[in-house]
């Protein structure tokens, strides 16, 4: 009898897909949901988990495993889907996402999905780090030397915020510049391309399409390829639901069409 083993006490919170993903045909132990339990509850869900999610989606090569983990975590954190987080934090580390990058993702998503979502995720990540012997001293500090700002891009952003927000919310204008784009986006612990991938994934996962075109353009300017963005949508469909992804499609199509070939 093969048992699904956990690597930390935090994995006791692993939920159905998190526990089963990448571990077909297991028999469950305390704190996990096994494929046999899935079968007992929903044979259809067992089939789709094993054949579609595991056998197809996670094996596709248009997005590397590291980036799939980033997309998946951004969706789960943004939606406050805590049950699978411990599994996927560990999976991300196994897939090559660095501890410091996970740490920076939490800070980034606090701004894009809300503080409560990020602090809830921090409560799951801390035990994962502890179990792996990752100390806070190994993570990016609160204050760092920031990356240089792209003044041309910043001028465009400032003009857009001024035009769309203006005097209606001066506090929002202040924090958008000072905290978001003059600090958070310039922290070197997460590459600009990956910050953009996190932001894009968060917006799609929560159905927030108003800023999606801007951030998809920014992502591609930061090095995300069109094929990678397209494949991220397939990943997000499974972890955020088809409706959220289909809501984003018109904006994505328009953004792709307007970019130079």
Features:
single chain, 261 residues, 62% helix
**Poorly predicted tracts of residues:** 1-31
Helix count from the secondary structure assignment: 13
Order of helices and strands: HHHHHHHHHHHHH
**Helical proportion, percent range:** 55-70%
Estimate the global geometry from the Cα principal axes: globular
Number of strands: 0
Radius of gyration: 19 Å
Structural class: mainly alpha
Which whole number gives the mean pLDDT? 88
State which percent range the strand residues make up: under 5%
Straight-line N-to-C gap? 54 Å
Largest sheet: none
Summarize the structure.
This protein has 261 residues and is mainly α. The protein contains 13 helices and no strands. Helices cover 62% and strands 0% of the residues.
What do these coordinates show?
This protein is mainly α and 261 residues long. Helix content is 62%, strand content 0%. The protein contains 13 helices and no strands. The chain has helices spanning 16-20, 35-41, 43-54, 65-78, 85-94, 99-113, 115-131, 151-164, 170-181, 192-205, 212-221, 226-240, 242-258. Helix 11 packs across helix 13. The protein is globular and about 60 Å long. The N and C termini lie far apart (54 Å). The model is unreliable at 1-31 (pLDDT under 50).
């Amino acid at each position: 009898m093969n048992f699904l083993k956990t690597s930390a006490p935090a994995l006791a919170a692993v939920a159905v897909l998190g526990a089963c993903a990448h571990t077909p045909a297991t028999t469950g132990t305390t704190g996990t949901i096994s494929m046999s339990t899935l079968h007992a509850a929903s044979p259809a869900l067992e089939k789709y988990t094993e054949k579609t999610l595991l056998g197809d989606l996670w094996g596709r090569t248009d997005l590397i495993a590291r980036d799939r983990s980033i997309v998946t975590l951004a969706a789960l954190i943004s939606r406050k889907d805590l049950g699978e987080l411990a599994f996927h934090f560990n999976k991300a580390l196994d897939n090559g996402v660095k501890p410091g990058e996970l740490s920076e993702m939490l800070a980034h998503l606090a701004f894009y999905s809300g503080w409560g979502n990020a602090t809830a995720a921090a409560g799951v990540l801390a035990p994962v780090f502890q179990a792996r012997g990752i100390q806070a001293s190994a993570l990016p500090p609160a204050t760092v030397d920031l990356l240089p700002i792209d003044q041309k891009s910043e001028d465009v952003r400032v003009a857009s915020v001024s035009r769309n927000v203006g005097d209606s919310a001066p506090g929002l204008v202040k924090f958008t510049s000072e905290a978001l784009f003059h600090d958070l986006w310039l922290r070197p612990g997460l590459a600009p391309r990956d910050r953009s991938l996190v932001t894009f994934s968060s917006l799609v996962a929560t159905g927030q399409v108003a800023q999606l075109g801007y951030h998809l353009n920014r992502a591609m300017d930061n090095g995300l390829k069109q094929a990678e963005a397209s494949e991220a949508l397939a990943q997000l469909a499974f972890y955020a639901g088809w409706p959220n992804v289909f809501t984003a499609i018109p904006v994505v199509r328009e953004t792709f069409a307007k970019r130079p070939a």
